[in-house]
Amino acid sequence: MNSIVPTQTIPILTLTLNPALDMASDVAEIIPGHKLRCSDPLLDPGGGGLNVSRAIKALGGDSLALVAIGGLTGDRLAGLIRAEGVTFLSILGPGETRQSLTVNEASTGKQYRFMLPGPVWTETERARVFTLLSATARPGGISVISGSQPPGVPADFPAQLAASMPGSKIVLDTSGSALSEAVRHPIPGLTVLRMDGEEGEGLAGRPLHSRADTAEYAQSLVRAGVAEMVIIARGADGNVLATKDRRLFSPAAKVKVKSTVGAGDSFVAAFVLALARNQSAAEALAFGSASAAAAVMTDATQLCRPEDVARLLPECSAVEV
């Protein structure tokens, strides 16, 4: 980051309909059939959009997080969000908020992630979300739809969410059928679509071996009307961004990896915050790459630290592909 941080001029809204109470622990060795004595768990509020808002807060920005809350687990999640100082509005969600568990095996350094599905959303509950978004999202603002979609929603649910926020710049970071649907049937006016390299290869139907291969595919999606900008993460190599006329690559800073949890959300947070500060696509891409690298340096479900981002940013300058 520069010594003088640009002022945020555009409001940011994040949406998390399938949040989780994230628990992270360590165990000496994972052995089937044995009682595994774990360390005291670290607890964090989790879920794509919520993590984006947490990282935006850590990076000195502001956002409003809309978060579905349900049951006793939801109450505990809300307490953790308040403790971090993230501004949020709770949406009454169905059932009990889900939990997730990340376990690091000390003997091998391997990480195991167990993700529960969360409660099923009915049509009535979805309609409440559309009403809240219509009242909350601001024209000209940035609205982030990030993370897994809750059970019970159709594949085109992100398109329905976007339609309830007319005039907003929509950033979509999702996976599975929701991602495939967004590519097959583009969401009108989508500003940014992000995916990881494996998802990109699955959609392309071929390996994307080089940065140029990835950039070419990303740009083909832009020119097909999928989004104004398409970002494809290439893991430890870095991140590619394409617009109709440009193809950019930002290398990943070389760091010691502790946990990959939250790297993608940290990227989205930094990228969106840079856009909200009216920085260029190249600056936003570099800021996102540095934040993703900073996130993998932290334990378990912790996100990026601003001092790490500032130190790593010079290594992530974007270049043309």
Order of helices and strands: EEEHEHEEEHEHEHEHHEEEHHHE
Annotated CATH architecture: 3-Layer(aba) Sandwich
**Class based on secondary structure composition and strand pairing:** alpha/beta
Helix segment count? 10
| Estimated share of beta-strand residues | 15-25%
CATH C-level class: Alpha Beta
> What is the rounded distance between the termini?
23 Å
Largest β-sheet summary: 10 strands, mixed
General description of the model:
This protein has a single domain, classed as Ribokinase (UDP-N-acetylmuramoyl-L-alanine:D-glutamate ligase, 3-Layer(aba) Sandwich). The chain is α/β, with parallel strands linked by helices and 321 residues long. The two termini are 23 Å apart. The chain is globular. It has ten helices and 14 strands. α8 (263-276) runs antiparallel to α9 (281-296). The strands form two sheets. Strands 5-4-1-8-9-10-11-12-13-14 form a ten-stranded mixed sheet, with helices on both faces. It has helices spanning 48-58, 71-84, 123-136, 157-163, 176-184, 197-204, 211-223, 263-276, 281-296, 306-312, and strands at residues 12-16, 20-27, 42-46, 64-69, 88-92, 98-105, 111-115, 142-146, 169-173, 192-196, 229-233, 238-242, 247-251, 319-320.
